[in-house]
Fold this sequence. Notes:
Chain A is an alpha+beta fold and 159 residues long. Chain A is 32% helix and 23% strand. At the B-C interface, helix 2 and helix 3 of B face helix 2 of C. The site of one adenosine-5'-diphosphate has 15 residues of chain A, from helix 2 and helix 3.
Amino acid sequence: MMLAENVVELTIASQLEFIDLVTTLTDNVTRMIGFDEESAYWVNMAVRESVANAVEHGNKYDPQKTVDIRFTIGVDALRVTVRDHGEGFDPSTLPDPLDPNNLLNPAGRGILYMRTFMDQVEYERHPEGGMIVTMAKRRAPQPISESGEGAHKQDAVRN
Amino acid sequence: MMLAENVVELTIASQLEFIDLVTTLTDNVTRMIGFDEESAYWVNMAVRESVANAVEHGNKYDPQKTVDIRFTIGVDALRVTVRDHGEGFDPSTLPDPLDPNNLLNPAGRGILYMRTFMDQVEYERHPEGGMIVTMAKRRAPQPISESGEGAHKQDAVRN
Amino acid sequence: MQLEIRERAVGDVSILEMTGKITIGEGSVQLRDAVSKLLDAGRNRIILNLGGVTYVDSSGIGELVSRFTTTKNSGGKLKLLNLTKKIKDLLMITKLLTVFEIYEDEQTALESFQ
Amino acid sequence: MQLEIRERAVGDVSILEMTGKITIGEGSVQLRDAVSKLLDAGRNRIILNLGGVTYVDSSGIGELVSRFTTTKNSGGKLKLLNLTKKIKDLLMITKLLTVFEIYEDEQTALESFQ
Ligand SMILES: Nc1ncnc2c1ncn2[C@@H]1O[C@H](COP(=O)(O)OP(=O)(O)O)[C@@H](O)[C@H]1O
Ligand SMILES: Nc1ncnc2c1ncn2[C@@H]1O[C@H](COP(=O)(O)OP(=O)(O)O)[C@@H](O)[C@H]1O
């Protein structure tokens, strides 16, 4: 029930079919806050990867487990967190997809995508289980509001 | 964390700006499950009205209060619930917008819209406060799956 | 921009060509402002061309009714032109089809002011 | 349908013209199936025309790599044609630009099989 005024949350069951709902919502959020086409495209891709991982590796397609996505529209950046309810993992132990020996691997490039397309990507184990990844993408500098402090919160959403 | 496999939930802060996110998600859900253009259009409109009421009359634009929208993709129908965290109201005491004396009222037609466009609309007070409205729209009859019982759940989402 | 409104004058009749959505918030406010501006300028013979309007929520319908009333109270008339099937449906559902004067072509709408 | 694939033969070279998205699930599976079908028919000189592909997620890139390897293992070759700027970016990020043989026009791609 409590939620900051600049937050949108989406919860889906662990089905790949629902990923498109998440990316379309992502497109609408990035458009609403004025991301250019190119940035919006890459944010969409990063969100897709994180949600696919949550469905596939985190929740292992368990239909009872949800993926919880949260968009926080900050003045400086859009923050997206994706939480699953799986066993978690240690991202520091993953093989490097750019190692010449791994270039022909059929998988293992999702987190690379995310780190490339977003300005910040951080993995944590959620205290109540599962992983939570927090990704941020900076917004273009906002024009300074002429109407002073009061107008800033609205701007965060509208611009 | 627990959620049936055919459920999508969206939570927004009480801002009119976010209503478009909800209706676009609605369009994606109705398209995914095969509603025709016309039905999808009216479901979109009913969802808009219910969310607008939750933001405006329920939460009274309180930025701390959320509107919680839940889509349940049933085999026979799409069910949408919209919950607010306001004081609630008694829908049986509302003026009839079709009464000749009310035709020129500037407001009061939202619930009429919802009841017209959906097959079912039910208001309840939520046990923990606020109103919850449950709306259902029947789906076109599904083709019977040839692969038997097991395939039905998937069909509920895919068709 | 949810709604675009272009203003055109034919003699003392003003035509507002509207394109987009009339919905709670932005769209409704734009409609209100456009009509107010005309009335403030003493132009109270108004045609709303809704041919390009794809979506009108209950707040938008309410706004149409309000503008109709305000214009009438100022001694003028507000009429509707070019309703799509969906908007006709909405006016039927809300029993407003007979409240508004509705026209299918601009010429007839203009002549109705004579 | 996420992805559409049309098959065309020029001599013993098969061209798959792909339009849409190659993503986890449907799109990747369609690509796998289309290449398998060719290899099963003994056609292992393959050009993927990606000119109409607007989006390739990491699963899709993985699928391209897998089909490249499978075709090679069957004694053939799989080459890429008409990459958009975005897909070139993705192959650069994943250091796969030099793994694939990439062509800008069909004629040159076809001749490379001679
Ligand atoms: N949410 C998650 N829960 C558990 N393991 C994960 C999660 N996300 C990623 N992983 C692990 O990290 C690995 C690398 O992920 P990624 O780079 O996205 O590539 P891919 O998904 O193709 O394997 C996965 O194979 C998996 O072992
Ligand atoms: N979620 C809600 N919480 C409290 N009151 C509500 C809610 N939804 C509707 N109402 C009440 O019902 C009335 C009629 O609603 P509606 O038919 O949507 O028309 P309008 O929103 O234009 O007033 C509202 O004016 C309000 O008093």
